[in-house]
Design brief:
With about 450 residues, the chain is an alpha/beta fold. It has 14 helices and 22 strands. The radius of gyration is 23 Å and the shape is globular. It starts with a strand and ends with a helix.
């Protein structure tokens, strides 16, 4: 009997990729065969994001694509968009099932009912307050890197964000489970683990214990990374993103002395203007952010620091933006992820006065994107002539392979199968036209590294 087939498509963050892999393993254990999205499948699972309007539209496009490949397929939509707007998704032509945050990991419980359903668009999305349990997940695909989920949900109430409404309260795995998953990943031959979650610096929520008469977290993020640092078989761990107020000095100091945790921090700033930070309901001022950057660079001058920034937040004047631009320009950071503010339903920000015209938002985005490229190139140039460890992986061009150094410098080199999924110390010699660093890797050098 030919097994039923399932195909997946993931939109959004690294956390979604980890969860898609976990859902895929559920199907595999039930006897399904996973196939490529384009080959046609009996069931399509689309894991959605709802951070931007673009992600919402992308979901609709993926449903249409799935039905072009397999008109009789059953289409299931899960993820943040599914929790926030289940009825809206159910009305998309071709959608059979919509699962919310509490239901997505019970997807197999609902699959058999699809053939009995009287029509399209069955919704199983409970209230987000029901999303109380932590479900562990990790991605596994190219044997090079795995995204390991350690935390979910968020208790922060940023005025622009829908994530607490889509994922619920902050909750975590326990240290022992995370370490066990890291060992499983190591046994699969993966060399790098990226720790993921919604607010991973808040690790420990949902695992509270009573000590004396006071409720305390069972473990903190620093306890987690100390335990992971002892896991054999993983060449390096990377922290995906951490709030600046939770990126404590002890975390920075630990990474600085660790041989496995990569010298790479991604800290969301969102604005370099304290007025906007207050309106965004962020839990720090820009002065604290600058202190964190200075602390990191004092201990790890080679460390890569990435920054999330939102432009065009309501009430952001040109003067406000330029103040933010100047602040970011003066920071010793390595690259920016720039987001154009988009109005999200049921958030406080959508009710705020003085919306910024869209053409102004786009112009500000372009200015910061150009600044990001300048900072990235300067960071790369600082390391020319140095030798750094690089984990090599597949490249879209079959004649090349690519990889990232420990401090997140993108590398390209001529293809050599023996080096795939290997950490190799290579000299950083010259910048490509696209801004990555080209490494020639002559044969004697390769032999020496693998000896």
């Amino acid at each position: 009997m030919t097994p039923r087939t399932v195909a997946f498509h993931t939109l959004g963050c690294k956390l979604n990729y980890a969860e898609t892999s976990a859902i895929g393993r559920l199907f595999e254990q039930a006897g399904y065969q996973e196939v490529a999205f384009e080959t046609g499948a009996d069931i399509y699972v689309i894991n959605t994001c709802s951070v931007t309007d673009f992600a919402d539209r992308k979901c609709r496009n993926m449903v249409r694509r799935a039905l072009r490949y397999a008109p009789q397929a059953k289409v299931v939509v899960v993820g943040c968009y599914a929790q926030l707007k289940p009825q809206e998704i159910a009305e998309i032509p071709g959608v059979d099932l919509v699962l919310g945050a509490s239901e997505k990991f019970r997807i197999l419980d609902f699959i058999d009912d699809l053939s009995k359903a009287p029509g399209k668009g069955m919704v199983q999305a409970g209230a987000i307050r029901e999303a109380k349990e932590f479900t562990h997940a990790f991605s596994f695909g190219d044997r090079t890197r795995s995204f390991l989920k350690v935390q979910d949900g968020c208790d922060y109430k940023c005025s622009f964000c829908t994530i607490p409404m889509a994922r619920g309260k902050s909750r975590s795995d326990i240290v022992e489970n995370v370490v066990a998953n890291a060992r499983r990943i190591a046994d699969m031959g993966v060399k790098e683990i990226v720790l993921t979650g919604v607010n991973i610096g808040d690790f420990g929520n949902g695992t509270e214990v009573i000590e004396g008469s006071k409720l305390q977290k069972e473990a903190l993020f620093i306890d987690l990374i100390r335990a992971l640092d002892q896991v054999a078989g993983i060449s390096r761990f990377r922290i995906s993103s951490i709030e600046p107020n939770l990126c404590a000095n002890e975390v920075i100091e630990f990474v600085a002395q660790s041989e496995r945790f990569a010298p790479h921090f991604h800290m969301p700033l969102q604005s370099g203007n304290n007025k906007q930070l207050q309106q965004m309901r962020r839990r720090y001022k820009r002065e604290l952010y600058a202190e964190r950057v200075a602390k990191i660079k004092s201990l790890m001058p080679h460390c890569c620091i990435g920054v999330d920034v939102i432009v065009g937040f309501p009430g952001e004047t040109e003067e406000d933006f330029l103040e933010s631009y100047r602040f970011i320009n003066e920071l010793d950071v390595s690259y920016l992820h720039v987001f154009t503010y988009s109005e999200r339903p049921n958030t406080p920000a959508i009710e705020m006065d003085s919306p910024v015209p869209m053409e102004v938002r786009r112009r500000r985005n372009q200015m910061l994107s150009i600044l990001s490229e300048k900072k990235r190139r300067y960071f790369y140039e600082q390391h020319l002539g140095q030798t750094r460890p690089v984990l090599f992986e597949q490249h879209p061009d079959a004649t090349l392979m690519s990889g990232f150094s420990d401090n997140y410098i993108k590398i390209e080199a001529p293809f050599d199968e023996a080096l795939l999924n290997q950490v190799v110390a290579v000299p950083l010699l010259e910048l490509n036209a696209d801004g990555s660093i080209l490494v020639p890797l002559p044969a004697p050098f390769v032999a020496q590294q693998l000896a």
